[in-house]
């Protein structure tokens, strides 16, 4: 179904938005409202005419939504002329309740509220965005697209933690997985690049942004992913630790003055490559490594070694791997991370072509040698387009096309 969808991705301190045509993926405007609730608020609104970047007081999510509509009024395109089909919201945690996207109503909102305890860093911000958008665009249908939905197909042995069964059930403790819109989009693109239908191929997707996760996709279906109950498990990230012996938390509680919230902040905001080297941004980290900084070199090695381990694990989980796809900011841009991660993996049938890996590009491309049994791709993700497509699908089903 075609039509323009306003896609909203609300974070705790920022709000990203796009107007995207659900069929073609063409974005007529993209924007970011930053530093919500703090000093130094900014709006960055991009249209085909150019980029408008300016300071703007943004007290809360209502003010952020207002700043967005003001940007459209002032710099275009005209939201009315765009004839929006719907608003599509990214919601990070949909729990085991939502295996697919849904039309928003009060009942859906209350279920997402109920799930906020499982994603305290993400769901409250997503809910704030939904509340404001419903008030601001009361005439438009609104749809939620969950990060978790794509992973609800995981088999029980992949989503189950080996915990006391009753405790786990009572507190809904299991692995949910995140970045589902990206894994769905990129795995489909990978199948197309292999010249096959998604149902025919097995792919490992490595989504490496600030948050990072790996996903084993068998025949178009997620069978395992590295994030778990929350987006903290798995890969080493910009500021998140990823996998850790859970006893580390107990040790810190027993032997330091740190409280639960301090440890939460430590693991989510002051760990990962930032915790190891003082640098969160992969570009800064790479520069520091080139300058001879040994902490930065260790951080990069830890980051890539964790990735290698997941590639090995997911090769075993899938049995046969047709392609590995790198995506998101680091995956799409860092030749160094790709090379270090895949170094000497010939034993798994993975042969990187160093020249193709180093050639910069903005489009989907193959970076493995002609002989590599497992193809290696760089595929730019497009979570907003995937959200717009899902939104249009729900609208077509609910109202007819
Ligand atoms: N040219 C580049 N080389 C290496 N890393 C890059 C490059 N461009 C962006 N990145 C990295 O991508 C990461 C952000 O990825 P992104 O997908 O935008 O994250 P998120 O959506 O989670 O905020 C940052 O660590 C940034 O350093
Ligand atoms: C779920 C998650 O980690 O999202 P992000 O990468 O946007 O932080
Ligand atoms: Mg992202």
Structural description of this entry:
It is a single chain. 39% of the residues lie in helices and 19% in strands. The protein has 401 residues and is of the alpha/beta class. Strand 13 and strand 14 form a beta hairpin. It is built from 15 helices and 14 strands. The protein is globular, with a radius of gyration of 21 Å. It has helices at 61-75, 106-114, 123-136, 156-159, 165-170, 180-193, 247-255, 260-269, 272-277, 282-290, 294-318, 328-333, 335-342, 354-358, 383-399, and strands at residues 4-10, 15-21, 27-34, 42-47, 50-55, 86-91, 102-103, 142-146, 202-208, 212-218, 221-225, 323-327, 365-366, 375-378. The chain has two domains: 4-146, ATPase, nucleotide binding domain (Nucleotidyltransferase, domain 5, 2-Layer Sandwich), CATH 3.30.420.40; 195-383, ATPase, nucleotide binding domain (Nucleotidyltransferase, domain 5). The longest helix has 25 residues, at 294-318. The chain has an eight-stranded mixed sheet with strand order 5-4-3-2-1-6-8-7, sandwiched between helices. Strands 11-10-9-12-14-13 form a six-stranded mixed sheet, sandwiched between helices.
CATH class of the largest domain: Alpha Beta
Please tally the β strands and state the result: 14
- Shape assignment: globular
Helix content: 25-40%
What letter string, H or E per element, gives the SSE order? EEEEEHEEHHEHHHEEEHHHHHEHHHEEH
The end-to-end distance, rounded to whole angstroms, is: 7 Å
Q: Would you give the CATH topology of the largest domain?
A: Nucleotidyltransferase, domain 5
**Treating each run of at least 4 consecutive H or I residues as one helix, how many helices?**
15
The CATH superfamily title of the largest domain: ATPase, nucleotide binding domain
The computed structural class is alpha/beta
The radius of gyration is: 21 Å
Return the domain count.
2
Q: Strand order of the main beta sheet, please?
A: 5-4-3-2-1-6-8-7
Uncertain ranges: none
Oligomeric state of the chains in view = single chain
- Beta fraction: 15-25%
């Amino acid at each position: 179904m075609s039509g323009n969808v306003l896609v909203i991705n609300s974070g705790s301190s920022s709000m990203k938005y796009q107007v995207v045509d659900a069929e073609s993926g063409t974005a007529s405007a993209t924007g970011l409202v930053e530093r919500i609730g703090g000093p130094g608020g900014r709006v960055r609104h991009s249209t085909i005419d150019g980029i408008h970047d300016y300071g703007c007081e943004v007290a809360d999510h209502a003010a952020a939504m207002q700043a967005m509509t003001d940007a459209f009024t002032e710099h275009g395109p005209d939201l009315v002329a765009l004839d929006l089909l719907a608003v599509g919201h990214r919601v990070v945690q949909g729990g085991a309740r939502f295996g697919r996207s849904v039309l928003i109503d009060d009942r859906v909102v209350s279920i997402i509220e109920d799930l906020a305890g499982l994603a305290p860093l993400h769901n409250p911000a997503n809910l704030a965005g939904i509340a404001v958008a419903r008030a601001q665009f009361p005439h438009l249908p609104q749809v939620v697209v969950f990060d978790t939905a794509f992973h609800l197909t995981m088999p029980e042995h992949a989503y189950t933690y080996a915990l006391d069964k009753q405790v786990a059930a009572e507190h809904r403790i299991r692995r949910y997985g995140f970045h589902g819109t990206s894994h769905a989009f990129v795995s489909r693109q990978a199948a197309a690049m292999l010249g096959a239908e998604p149902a025919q191929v097995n792919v490992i997707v490595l989504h490496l942004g600030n948050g990072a996760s790996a996903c084993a996709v068998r025949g178009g279906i997620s069978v395992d992913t590295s994030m778990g109950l929350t987006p903290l498990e798995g890969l080493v990230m910009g500021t998140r630790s990823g996998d850790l012996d859970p006893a580390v938390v107990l040790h810190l509680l027993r032997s330091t003055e740190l409280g639960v919230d301090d440890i939460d902040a430590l693991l989510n905001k002051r760990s990962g490559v930032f915790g190891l080297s003082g640098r969160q941004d992969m570009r800064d980290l790479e520069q520091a490594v080139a300058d001879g900084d040994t902490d930065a070199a260790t951080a990069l090695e830890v980051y890539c070694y964790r990735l290698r381990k997941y590639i090995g694990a997911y090769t075993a989980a899938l049995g046969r791997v047709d392609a590995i796809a790198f995506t998101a900011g680091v995956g799409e841009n860092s030749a160094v991370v790709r090379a270090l991660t895949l170094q000497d993996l010939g034993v798994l049938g993975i042969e990187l072509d160093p020249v193709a890996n180093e050639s910069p590009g903005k489009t989907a491309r193959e970076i493995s040698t002609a002989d590599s049994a497992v193809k290696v791709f760089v595929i730019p993700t497009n979570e907003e387009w995937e959200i717009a497509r899902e939104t249009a699908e729900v609208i077509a089903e609910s109202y007819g096309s």
